[in-house]
Amino acid sequence: MRHERTNALRTRWPIVQAPMAGGPDTPELAAAVSNAGGLGSLGCAYMTEAQIEAAAVKLRTLTSQPFALNLFVRADAPSDPSAAARVSPILGEFRRELGLPAEPPPGPPTPQFEDQLEAVLRARPAVFSFTFGAPTREQIKALHARSIAVIGTATTVEEAVVLASLDVDAVCAQGSEAGGHRGTFLGSFEEALIGTITLVPQIAARVKVPVIAAGGIMDGRAIRAMLGLGASAVQLGTAFMTCPEAGTSEAHRAALATAWRTVVTRAFSGRPARGVRNRFCEAFAAVEAAPFPQQQRLTRDIRAAAAAQGRADIMQLWAGQGAPLGRAMPAATLVELLVREAGLGS
Ligand SMILES: Cc1cc2nc3c(=O)[nH]c(=O)nc-3n(C[C@H](O)[C@H](O)[C@H](O)COP(=O)(O)O)c2cc1C
């Protein structure tokens, strides 16, 4: 059974390196994981169509193994001037501190999901994964018509049932421990903060498609536990952030080692995401951030300047709750270690 389900992922090992759009994932990281028998993923959510196609070309120069491309399924609300006015005094303070001009420069528009998906269809990865919502049935059919397997992200049983009814090939069950954005697309995100240990068996009991467990999985012990709870595979993000192939900055790596406390915050992008608590998150504890992706655009140069200046008190420091359990080693070595620890090879 497990062997058959692992094949649904099209990989030797039931281990997925999570897509991590915006820096931590790189073609080098994804290719190293795929070459080691896992499924490497590349988060393409912030890429234009041309960038997505170029990334796939680059990946194919680095690996002949299956890999996944990943997108955010979004229908963006129009920018809200009152939200911009609400957050501007807070952002203005950080801009001054970082030596940025008073107003953010007009950046490129956020690429549309439909256009990005066209690029994925042309790039034809073995796997397409998504979060934040659900594509239409027609979009999933178009992916299947090109032999692209489809993995959708669910943070509740209800979401998993919706995804399964759309004929996805696997559901990634994202527990509340997970680093980065919450995938929640039905109801409030607070009610969808369900720990991986309880989410995985409930989703596995309700849907027929394979379940990929995500959130807080850092070593082979946790992989074994998840497979024992009904998962067919696991997806690890934070654990791969400390690999040398990852694009994680030095300040971010240092913060992960002592990330005993993380928070789910809308401060950086407007959507709830888990990261290390810092002064920037705290500034938005009492003031509501602008909606996604407006907040993302408004904070773009602040996040870039904070990262360039190594300002861990202002930077976006995505991290799962397992971050201090991270082990810095090449991705292939980490995959081998996880396989050994979980007893998968035997
Ligand atoms: C830095 C970072 C960026 C992420 N970006 C994405 C993304 O672009 N697309 C996506 O589907 N999930 C994204 N995630 C969530 C992961 O898919 C996954 O749910 C999570 O990493 C699992 O929890 P863990 O970090 O504790 O392993 C991201 C996670 C992190 C840590």
From TrEMBL:
This protein's record includes keyword Transmembrane helix: no
Catalytic activity: 3 propionate 3-nitronate + 3 O2 + H2O = 3 3-oxopropanoate + 2 nitrate + nitrite + H2O2 + 3 H(+)
Molecular function GO labels: monooxygenase activity
Keyword set includes Kinase: no
Pfam families: NMO
Cofactor(s) required, per the database record: FMN
Keywords: Detoxification, Flavoprotein, FMN, Monooxygenase, Oxidoreductase
Record-linked PANTHER family: NITRONATE MONOOXYGENASE-RELATED
UniProt similarity note: Belongs to the nitronate monooxygenase family. NMO class I subfamily.
Protein name per UniProt: Propionate 3-nitronate monooxygenase
Natural source organism: Nannocystis punicea
Lineage: Bacteria, Pseudomonadati, Myxococcota, Polyangia, Nannocystales
